[in-house]
Design a protein that fits this description.
Blueprint lengths: L16 E6 L2 H12 L4 E6 L1 H10 L4 E4 L8 H11 L4 E6 L4 H9 L4 E4 L4 H33 L4 H4 L3 E5 L5 E4 L2 H6 L3 H4 L13 H7 L11 E7 L9 E9 L22 E7 L1 H15 L9 H18 L2 E10 L1 H8 L1 H16 L7 E6 L2 E9 L2 H14 L4 E3 L2 E3 L2 E9 L6 H17 L5 E3 L2 H23 L2 E10 L5 E12 L3 E3 L1 H10 L3 H21 L6 E5 L2 H4 L4 H11 L7 E6 H6 L1 H13 L3 E7 L16 E4 L1 H4 L10 H12 L3 E4 L5 H10 L3 E2 L10 H9 L9
Parallel strand pairs: 1-2, 1-3, 3-4, 4-5, 16-17, 19-21, 21-22, 22-23, 23-24, 24-25, 25-26
Antiparallel strand pairs: 6-7, 6-10, 8-9, 9-10, 11-13, 11-16, 12-13, 14-15, 18-19, 18-26, 19-20
Helix pairs in contact: 2-3, 12-13
Amino acid sequence: MKPEHADQTPSQGFPARLLVVDDEPRLLSSLASLLRSQGYEVTEAEGGERACELIDQQSFDLALLDLRMPGVDGFEVMAELSRKQPDCGTIVVSGESSFAAVSRALRRGALDYIRKPFDPEELLATVESVINKQSLMRAHEHIQVRLEKSEALHRYIVNTSPDIVFMLDEEGFICFINSKVESLLGYQPEELCGQHFRQILDDRDVSKGTYALKGANITADNPRTLEVRLKTRGSQQATRHFEITAFPIDPQTWPHTGDSQIGATPKSARYYGTARDVTERKEAEAFINFQAYHDLLTRLPNRALFKDRLELAIAQARRGKEKLAVMFLDLDRFKIINDTLGHAMGDRLLQAVTQRLEKCLRKGDTLSRFGGDEFTLLLPAIHDNDDARQIARKLIRALQAPFQLGEHEVFVGVSIGIAVYPEAGENLDQLIQNADIAMYHVKGRGKDGYRFYSQTMSVDTANRLNLERDLRLALERDELRVFYQPQVCSRSNRIVGLEALVRWQHPERGLLYPGDFLALAEETKLIVQLSEWVMDRAFRDVGDWIRNGHPDLRLAVNLSPTQVEHPRFVDNLVRRMTKQHFPPDNLEIEITENVIMSDLDQISHKLRELATVGVRIAIDDFGTGYSSLNYLHRLPIHTLKVDQSFVRAIRSGEEGACIVNAIVAMAHGLKLEIVAEGVETDEQLSYLRNLGCHQVQGFFYGPARPAGEVFKALEERTVKAVSF
């Protein structure tokens, strides 16, 4: 008895039928629910014995099964499927990870092996890939069956053949052609008879076609076979591909006559043959070849094709003693957008980025998607580094304008590392690796820029690996310290707030400042763990001081973009304050304009939630980012912090201080508090005080200090200037 729905296949528009087998009910239900959410038709089998029963009753396209099950295990289920439903593919989803088990499963016909616990996205991608491959194989098998049937019925081709059947004379003129030529190419048989066959050959294949019939070695056992393109009548359709098979005709055995008939001429035939339309096969082959060497999302060359072209370019550059450049591009802020807006929006962004990047390229350049949000670019035959520099600048400028993704306006940048042949490497692996190293140096210096590889970078990279190892150990060994820089009232010299700053007491290098390790922490994702440690320590220290005589003391904490953009940022921050019994009204978080503008809608919602519970919001380094003033009246901003680069511009009088004047005036107009950073001289302090900036911080009152020293200053109520 044929299983139910045996004739339905995914390629016919029906959802793929999946059999999910596991002896753990909860895992079975979870996996089935995940697959159903993607539109698959899922049947659950608890255990191997139940799976075998279902295999007798229903037809499946794909089975996902565990190996280790009591009674009938996964291997026995695979054997049952192989006997009764050989077209059903198998993916093993198992906690059994030994080489023997994996090897045995693959030998038994498993198409893939996913280890428990599995990543849902990886599993869904694997299922989709396997089903697509099966559909393609079925389509390929279908074409092969059609071709085999056509060959088996060759004796009927004159009257019923799906192919064009023709006869040619000694010189290549058409003696006979069947009516199939009308449906395939649009010609009437009688108008082609008497014409040379090159009249319907595509111009690109005329030489190939005419040369093929001149060979002296064509025999009945060795026919001439070739693939050519034939023109359709009036070029109303695209040129079609045909497989031509031509046999010689023995004049002694061919009973030809001089009588004319439709589709024939009285000339003596020398060859007969068939022309089979293989356009679909050629298109399928082209598509499979495209898949093998291109990224289907962006349509760019993939890593394999890029390496092939780079290998060829290196060989040409070596022979011609020329230079070439390899660029490694990594998008800035892509992960944030992908995690926040979802993978569909992330895919749209990658496609939009690709379109902009391609407009910057020269003819002969190769842009490839290397993986994720990483791209590589091959620039062959450059004269000097300036050629690569110009392209890098064009790429950076191309991505500066915002991208519109539905209702969201997002910004991405790009960090570019450049390796020039032969200085930065003489083979493809060296060039790609060194371009990658140069790119990471861009990331470490603020992103959104480019750098050429140099030998010193390899040394820096080795030091970076050691520093990363030490930083991970520092969190475990309690080597981090929190220092506090006072925020002082410029009129009374009273401490009104403290900014928490992290330091690292390295066991060998001594006290390290944030500039020595924060960029590395951001890159390695340790920044969240580090920032949470700083907040917990600051909440404890400042919370004690607030409860012991300083109720109005404000704590300012810098937050990394990774923290703010996390979906549960607000919940995490409120939970930490509650755990440390820190009053929200005494907390001021500092974020930069760039963080806000990276996703204004999402950040706005989070900041309003924090303002609702009493947390104050400060814009750090104001004036150095996007400076889009539109957000100031839309968000619950309480404080603007004037960047120290503007404060340093204050010399004598008002010269060089126009930006400070504008920021202070703006803050007063918007009824915002203002804090000037980097105050170092009495001249700067006086200028800011007269301007109406009543809160300052900087080396004028000394550097950031440990908790013990800061507490003593709090007890003295005022802080004195430090002499340099």
